[in-house]
Design goal:
241 residues; mainly alpha; 10 helices
Length: 241
């Protein structure tokens, strides 16, 4: 059976998932791995904290950047600051491997830190250590905004998978409206980061850029994640009951 409001696939493609379904499955699976499981009863604070990875996740996200910022601004030794930053990320990854715990987040952080360090080392400019983060903000912000504008909110695709609804939410004007604004809010977060940090990058102000990157990271991510979680749960609460 096809979802309401969607064009039925051709008979030969009936068993083939659509691109939107594949994206929804990927996003939903990532959300489940992060602890965003609507089937489990837990406080919003617990869900958000678990999604961030707890103390270890916060440390993996913050310490490499913080080490780079402190060392570079106090010593002006770019190779030393980069080496310590990458080394911290590598230690977190090795610890996860030894403990046989999920390494995807730590490994992703290590790769991102390594690429950023390689670029900064190649150019000799400390501010280039932040280029991958700026690109990520631009890509995520654009993707979320475009998905909202064309009516295929990435937030909706993820929630639809989590709630076993697929893309049927698109036939509900209320859900489409809510998912539009949620995707727009996430897009705004990434674009605000970009708008604040990009001028500092061009000005070569590494100290302020690094500080604001930390301030505009988890402290902004966590509240928006909580709002998204609460809004999505409220949207499906009558159906769940």
């Amino acid at each position: 059976m096809t979802s309401p409001g969607l064009t039925p696939p051709e008979p030969n493609d009936a068993t083939q998932p659509t691109a939107s379904e594949l994206i929804g499955q990927a996003l939903g699976s990532a959300a489940l791995k992060a602890g965003l499981d609507p089937a489990k009863e837990a406080s919003t604070g617990h869900v958000v904290w678990h999604a961030m990875g707890g103390w270890r996740g916060v440390a993996e996200s913050v310490l490499p950047s913080l080490a780079f910022l402190l060392l570079y601004t106090t010593t002006s030794e770019l190779p030393l600051a980069l080496a310590v930053s990458v080394g911290i990320a590598a230690v977190f990854t090795v610890v996860r491997l030894v403990q046989r715990s999920p390494v995807s987040a730590a490994l992703g952080g290590l790769i991102a830190t390594g690429l950023a360090a390689a670029l900064a080392l190649f150019t000799g400019r400390g501010e280039d250590n932040f280029v991958p983060g700026l690109i990520t903000n631009a890509v995520y912000g654009t993707g979320l905004l475009v998905s909202a504008l064309i009516g295929w909110s990435l937030i909706g695709l993820a929630v639809g998978f989590l709630m076993n609804e697929g893309t049927a939410w698109r036939a509900d004007p209320r859900k489409r409206r809510v998912f539009f604004w949620l995707a727009t809010a996430w897009s705004a977060l990434f674009f605000v980061r970009l708008a604040v940090q990009l001028p500092l990058y061009f000005a070569g102000d590494v100290a302020t850029l690094g500080t604001l990157k930390l301030v505009m990271g988890l402290p902004l991510f966590a509240p928006l994640l909580a709002v998204t979680w609460l809004t999505s749960r409220a949207l499906y609460k009558p159906a769940a009951e």
